[in-house]
Amino acid sequence: MEAPGDEAIHAAVRRPTQRRQLRNPNPKMRARLLAAAACQIRDRGYANLRVEDVAERAGVSIGTFYLYFEGKQDLFVELVREFSEQLRRRLAEADGGEGTLRDRMIRRLSAYLDFVGENMPAFLHYRDGGAIDTNLGPLATWAIKVHAADLRPLLAEGMAAGVLPPTDPELLSQALIGLTQHLAGYWAEYRDRYSREAIEEFLLAFITSGIDVARPAQPGPAME
Amino acid sequence: MEAPGDEAIHAAVRRPTQRRQLRNPNPKMRARLLAAAACQIRDRGYANLRVEDVAERAGVSIGTFYLYFEGKQDLFVELVREFSEQLRRRLAEADGGEGTLRDRMIRRLSAYLDFVGENMPAFLHYRDGGAIDTNLGPLATWAIKVHAADLRPLLAEGMAAGVLPPTDPELLSQALIGLTQHLAGYWAEYRDRYSREAIEEFLLAFITSGIDVARPAQPGPAME
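Predict the joint structure of the above. Result:
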């Protein structure tokens, strides 16, 4: 299966006409526009993002903006891609390839929750931002696919070594990433109600043992 | 905690001016417009939904459309709400309140996968449709909250009866619904690769036992 993290992603909708392209785009200008947009989204969300405000915040003209980005969707896809890349690096560092599978997964989970904790409310804005279609499918599922693809080899190793029961590594990585992202989002929404530790403890218990409902049922009166 | 399923939901953005309201709106006309929109979305997705096409498909004028709906977002929220209501009824029927917790959860899961299977690709279009903000928060997380709220009492009963290990029933219901919805979406995206049975079997195993990585680790050479 393809590794979606290594494929170039862009918004599915392109401008119908060829826009002016820079022969030597300035990476610093591009970074400045992205940083300005990231601030706007963090403060006000994607729905309220306006190209005019991004250009103004970056101190450039709207014309300059369009030399670097096709528009609002293109910019947002790029920000989500950068955000995912940062997270991937953090997870890879935390993993480090040392220790048991359990150690490595716990370190990855911990690094993930650190990252989300440091990046609230941006995390929620990226999650809820735009239902944007890209050349690699819907943006929201693309990010999950990238992280699932990173996790899959670790799970496959665990199965090969007999530490994990054999199952479909693709489904398992999707389950783990989808579940963790969902609960991280829930935490970010209700951070006044749940501590980081409570979320981490719950996730570890659920991931390692499930709900344990399989053990011989003892239906009490309340269950009928 | 509030029961989000019983609260009226509408798009957060309302028309700035008061639109004309019907004194006696015709429920059949409303249903006809919703059915026309559902067909458009099933065939072409939300991004390509146009009010003009919905009106034409329903055989009414655009003016009539706006007597019933504020616009595209309002219409989509209403469709997602109806879709969720259908699903809630199916899950409640499948549950039926009889049998052990395990029996009831298996029946619920099976009914959920039946529903998704019958409603592809609409399910994906609703999932990916619009990043729409509502009076009850982002539309995508609202639907999960509704289903989690329905499941929570069952889980709380199970804990009270000692069939489930004690944990936070809110986090557990979010985990179960978020996980199941995510994998159902994955199945819908890759239905040529996974059978309904494979998804159901995987989910049951994961939900009941987790990945079992907690058992004494036997790190093999492949794990280092």
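The CA atoms of residues 213 and 221 of chain B lie 17 Å apart.
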